[in-house]
Fold these 2 entries.
Entry 1:
Amino acid sequence: MRSMLKLIIVLAMVLFALSACYPNPAPPGLTPIPTLAPGVELTPIGTVEAQVTVAPAAQVTAGADAALPAGNEGQGAAIFAKNCTPCHGQGGQGGGIGPKLVGDKFVQAGPDQNIYNVIANGRPGTAMPAWSKANPPLSDQQIYDLIAYVKSLQK
Ligand code: HEC
């Protein structure tokens, strides 16, 4: 008789425990998912047409051998006398630590862009300075003038 009572108590506890779990109790703090009011119908949104954007034709970049703007030989001579003679000598005749620029193979070979690059950027690892970064720097036009001048030394 006593064991029967125990069994009933255990069964009651199990039922109580189950009733707490089923159906799952809503966790506190959750807002219920809103539902549509009866009679409200959803209208589908129209299809969105994709906008086709045509990329503009690639900009044509000037090739390395495109002609640089013209330089003024006379101006170039003056700039050369002021900045370049200590190393390349009067009139590019040599005598300093820089090579003679009269009859210079590099200048003769061209194109002007190569001469521009050497003057503007220098020759890293050598004494030839980067004149576009000098203090004060030479402008592009001044470098074009120098190109005209050093080319005139080849004639
Ligand atoms: C501080 C010395 C120095 C000064 C100043 C200098 N140069 Fe040079 N330059 C050199 C040296 C050194 C070289 C050779 C670098 C090498 O070994 O490739 C050179 C190379 C060049 C070359 C290439 C020649 C070749 O045959 O490769 C040109 C062109 C040139 N210089 C132009 C100029 C002009 C223009 C100026 C003035 C704006 C100038 N340099 C000022 C030292 C100088």
Entry 2:
Amino acid sequence: MDLNLKGKTAIVTGSTSGIGRVCARQLAAEGVNVVIVGRNDERGNKVVGECKAAGADAIFCKTDITDLGEVEATVKAAVDKFGKVDILVHSAAAPFLIMKLKDLPVDTWDSAIKVAQYGAMYFVKALNETMTAQRSGRIIIISSDAGRMGDAYQPVYSGAKGALIALSKSFAQDLGPAGITCNCICPALTVTEEDLPMLIDKYGYGTDEGKKKLTRVYPLRKLGMAEDVADMAVFLASDRAGHVTGQTISVSGGFTMM
Ligand SMILES: NC(=O)c1ccc[n+]([C@@H]2O[C@H](COP(=O)([O-])OP(=O)(O)OC[C@H]3O[C@@H](n4cnc5c(N)ncnc54)[C@H](O)[C@@H]3O)[C@@H](O)[C@H]2O)c1
């Protein structure tokens, strides 16, 4: 299947680690030039190297995505370097604590909401002119099954992720007439290179028994990998998904079915 992605440009938020990093690499492997967005120079430059090794050009733009000025500067840098932006993947998320609302420190609430929602809104606002002018664009938002189901131990995160689902439908309706699609991907617990040691230490994921316990709620009896999420992002970014918009797609081994 020809995805027709070669020569396109993507901005990927949260791509100095985890799922965003793998999305960036897999887009690069399809010939997409990638703008790595994050706050850590060393990790950002490492991912730039990985994308170049995968076959495309890449730059790192150090950006706090909760700052509109920084987001606008990143979009400008992307257009200056590559001439256009075709794809946004919004994968950034603030670290979260697993606890009920009554125990969750109030000073962690703002960043969960701001990184998720303001990050998405700032990028979509900043990209509106360029994507509308080119009459095409792909916006892919990484939400979570927690945003579809709610999770008693992740209340603020669940709310922020649920809001992203609504936001993406709003973007899809607003920007559809300009040929821009917007879809949400919802992972459940997903193995990333960075989180693997924690999954092994905290949940015994390195043993058969630990794996069985951790995966029993998943019909496919396995955890998703960052690559599974990135595969869906690459498909949604491609010409093959041109008639898909406003959709919320779980990539979670059947954890949610709706
Ligand atoms: N890994 C999972 O199990 C899982 C499950 C469901 C949903 N998700 C979602 O997938 C996405 C990626 O998750 P991940 O596991 O790769 O996490 P991750 O922590 O590795 O990646 C998130 C990235 O966002 C960056 N970030 C945070 N605040 C930022 C800011 N203000 N400006 C710029 N960058 C900022 C972090 O530095 C980090 O690099 C997130 O949206 C997460 O909610 C992950």
